[in-house]
Write a structure and sequence with these properties.
globular; mainly beta; Maltoporin, Chain A; 22-stranded antiparallel β-barrel; five-stranded mixed β-sheet
Length: 689
């Protein structure tokens, strides 16, 4: 790889000064969900139309308009993604029939962990979110062919200023936000931005309470006209009470559906909690050379602690007496430390009389995670589950851990990718990554070395506004899932192919795309149907399925057909099957529609609506007599309106689940079901300066 990089870099550079001016001066303009360029897929500074994968951008206006307060909220609105809430404090994300495991902060890959509640990271620290659907192993290394979520942090605004926002909502929700940019030097070379959010409140789920704090600060310093240094820090503290471990029974003991349980039903006790604290520091330096090349180096340090006092309630209650439920109390404590480093270079080169682009990078990450579990010395009786109010006393627990574990995951890799402009209308993108993946843990060590992940893409401009593309990459994903003997399952392996067409319209104000995709995988983890009790570390045993396939198509339209309207539309069809052709992962919807619009009635008034529709979900054979759990197709409607009282003061109202639809957010986790939130109202008052 290094020899290839040196040979290409030695080629004559063309129009270097012009390229440098474009890359060092250019600023991305974000409005709604459109963005002119994104590099999450390949590392190359490609326009969305030149990127041979499906890409969506969720911008700050969309986030603010629909009051999206967490990453989970954004995932619920994002095209082609499922954000399934499995407990009061835990979410799982899926796309194209696969779990989303690839998360990045400013392009630096990090390990996502649902136990640490990464899903509810507050959006107050982010400027936008880039979503690339499909495999992105070229930049992230190990990964699923689902999607990569790149969370772009806020940077200081050159013009300074900020805002304070107060929000009140249903279930006694109270939230306060602050965001301010300022200059720290007279010449404007050093700038800072601070942001924070504090939220308290109850929930639609009985006993559940929220007490969240998020703080963020970042400083940028222009060391020269071509060099910028960025350092930042964020801290989160989440102290929820009434936290659930697991969800609700989907059936009664006689096999009839338990869908008459109220949305507010909980399995928590008044002593359960799931506290998380996290501190993340980052630094980056970037330099633009006179020959048009850019070099970036980024370092990320993440630390987190978790303390869960939990109660898992399982079984099937009698429909009349409510008897038949058991419990598994647990105290689970864990610490996590992660370091990540990325160094990359990108720029133009000339060959065969044409200009091309090249990027190369090195990545390193290491995560150390340790955990202790404490078992209960006494049982927690449930009695009549239909009258459960969480008042059961907290049992005594072992003073010493009943089980402990530690694990170190190290990933090293290097990648090289190039965009070859073979013709005025034809671009070829080739790339490859070489990865080493190592796990050292209490249950054993294993290593996967010199794993090659290829990437290939073709883009052909049919017209000045429309391009066709095709891309292919292979998949390598070590997995955390363990079998009944607490041994890790073998890595997921497979391939991902995509073909599609993209277009820019109305002077590039509106983008449209259509894509066909196909994924083939082996060693896919599913819950072991023969074992329903948790392992000593609190997780559940899995088995591997061979020959899983997923295929489907996506249609997306985003942008501004006129100055008054922002439009966001997507339709996704995704179906999974096993090697023998039988359906697979039917607990995920095959079809989804995301439709949102923001309309400016006048300079002072803006209204918006969001419609999320999905087809049915089925979890087969999980009832006591082999019945299938089912969530019929449903539609959620969310509405908003804002009014500018003055140039600085704005009032906003959001009505979520306006039709008050009762629905399961998930029906597969532990083969239990978790209700989505009821209709709820939020009102906000925002002052800007």
């Amino acid at each position: 790889m290094s020899l290839a990089l040196l040979s290409v870099c030695s080629l004559p550079l063309a129009n270097a000064q012009e390229q440098n001016e474009q890359q060092s001066v250019e600023r991305l303009e974000v409005r709604g969900s459109r963005l002119d360029k994104a590099s999450t897929a390949t590392g190359l500074p490609l326009t969305l139309r030149k990127t041979p994968q499906s890409v969506s951008i969720i911008g700050s206006e969309f986030i603010d308009s629909f009051a999206l307060e967490s990453i989970a909220d954004i995932m619920t609105f994002a095209p082609g993604l499922q954000a399934q809430r499995a407990e009061t404090d835990r979410y799982f994300f899926r796309a194209r029939g696969n779990d989303i495991t690839n998360f990045q902060f400013d392009g630096v890959p990090v390990n996502y962990n649902s136990f640490f509640n990464d899903a509810v990271t507050d959006t107050i620290i982010f400027e936008r979110v880039e979503v690339v659907r499909g495999a992105t192993g070229l930049l992230t290394g190990a990964g699923e062919p689902s999607a990569a979520i790149n969370l772009i942090r806020k940077r200081p605004k050159a013009e300074g200023g900020g805002y304070i926002n107060a929000r009140l909502g249903s279930w006694n929700q109270r939230r306060l936000e602050l965001d301010h940019s300022l200059s720290l030097s007279e010449d404007g070379a050093v700038n800072a931005r601070v942001a924070g959010a504090y939220e308290q409140g109850d929930s639609y789920v009985d006993l559940a309470e929220k007490d969240d704090l998020q703080l963020y600060g970042v400083i940028t310093a222009d060391l020269s006209t071509q060099t910028r240094l960025t350092v930042g820090l964020d801290h989160s503290r989440r102290n929820p009470k009434g936290s659930t471990w697991g969800a609700l029974p989907l059936f009664y003991a006689d096999g009839s559906p338990a869908d008459d349980l109220p949305v507010s039903t909980t399995t928590a006790a008044n002593w359960t909690k799931w506290e998380r604290d996290g501190t993340n520091a980052f630094a980056a330096i970037e330099h633009a050379f006179d020959n048009g090349w850019d070099v970036h180096a980024e370092l990320e340090r993440r630390e987190g602690e978790m303390d869960g006092h939990l109660l898992y309630v399982f079984g099937l209650p009698d429909k009349e007496t409510g008897l038949g439920m058991g419990t598994s109390p647990l105290i689970y404590q864990s610490k996590r430390e992660q370091d990540a480093l990325r160094v990359m270079a990108s720029g133009p080169f000339s060959a065969l009389g044409r200009e091309h682009n090249l990027t190369a990078g090195l990545l390193y990450s290491q995560q150390d995670i340790s955990s202790d579990s404490f078992s209960a010395l006494e049982a927690v009786p449930v009695g009549n589950f239909l009258e459960w109010d969480g008042s059961a006393a907290k049992p005594p627990f072992t003073e010493e851990p009943s089980s402990s574990g530690s694990e170190t995951i190290t990933q090293k890799g290097g990648y090289l990718a190039a965009q070859f402009n073979l013709h005025d209308q034809f671009n070829l993108i080739l790339g490859s990554r070489l990865s080493d993946y190592e796990v050292e843990g209490a249950t054993g060590n294993y290593e996967h070395g010199s794993v090659t992940t290829p990437y290939a893409g073709l883009v052909y401009d049919l017209t000045d506004m429309i391009s066709a593309y095709v891309s292919y990459t292979e998949i390598f994903q070590p997995q955390d899932a363990k079998d009944i003997n607490s041994r890790r399952l073998d890595p997921v392996e497979g391939s991902n192919a995509e073909i599609g067409v993209k277009g820019d319209f109305f002077g590039q104000a509106l983008t449209a795309s259509f894509a066909l995709f196909k994924v083939e995988k082996d060693n896919v983890a599913i819950l072991d149907p023969n074992f329903t009790e948790p392992l000593p570390d609190g997780s559940f045993p899995y088995i591997a399925v061979k020959g899983a396939r997923n295929k489907g198509y996506e249609l997306e339209v985003n942008g501004n057909p006129n100055d008054q309207l922002d439009l966001y539309f997507s339709f996704t069809h995704s179906e999974s099957e096993q090697a023998n052709g039988s359906p697979f992962k039917t607990y995920l919807p095959e079809d989804m529609i995301r439709l949102s619009g923001l309309y400016r009635i006048s300079d002072q008034i803006k209204v918006g609506a969001n419609i999320n529709w999905q087809s049915e979900m089925v979890n087969p054979g999980v009832g006591p007599n082999g019945e299938s759990a089912r969530q019929d197709a449903y539609t959620l409607v969310n509405l908003m309106a804002s009014y500018d009282i003055s140039e600085q003061l704005q009032a906003q109202i959001n009505l979520n689940n306006a039709l008050d639809k009762k629905y399961y957010s998930s029906i597969d986790f532990y083969n239990q079901g978790f209700w989505g939130p009821e209709r709820n109202l939020q009102v906000s008052l925002r002052y800007s300066w």
